[in-house]
Design goal:
142 residues; alpha+beta; two-stranded antiparallel sheet; 3 helices
Length: 142
């Protein structure tokens, strides 16, 4: 597994690659969001985790399939989102992110050593981020 930390626009982006080639451009990014008192939401204020498409499709999308549908944690938001959409923002609340962590832990039990290391990094990010934010955005550039 390759792990790289990039500095982008005032925050760190951790990039994980296990099966994804270095030249792959399509990705998803998991971002804890900053929710202001006046109702604005920013997902570029905290550190984030980027996973490229080959790894996302192989390791994360099957877990997302088990998590969704989810309800947008913003009462003025989009309502229920039936499935993960790699082309748009996917809004999750803290409870859903912790459910995601539990599903990843389950998947980790049957993973090989390299995949366990990958999942461990994702789990660490989710669990640490759940303490700083109540709302999360997972978006893609597909």
């Amino acid at each position: 597994m390759r792990k790289e930390i990039l500095r982008e626009e005032g925050h760190d982006v951790t990039v994980l690659r296990l099966y994804s080639p270095e030249d792959e451009k399509v990705m998803i990014e998991i971002c804890p969001a900053y929710y202001t008192e006046d109702g604005n939401v920013f997902w570029d204020r905290y550190d984030s985790l980027r996973v490229y498409h080959t790894d996302s499709a192989r390791l994360l999308y099957p877990v997302f399939d088990r998590l969704f549908p989810v309800t947008d944690p913003d009462p003025n938001g989009w309502g229920v989102q039936e499935r993960f959409d790699p082309t748009a923002p996917n809004w999750l609340g803290r409870e859903d992110m912790l459910k995601l962590a539990a599903l990843i832990k389950e998947r980790c039990s049957s993973a090989d050593t390299a995949e366990k290391e990958f999942y461990g990094e994702v789990l660490g990010f989710i669990e640490n981020s759940a303490y700083i934010s109540e709302i999360f955005c997972i978006f893609g550039n597909l």
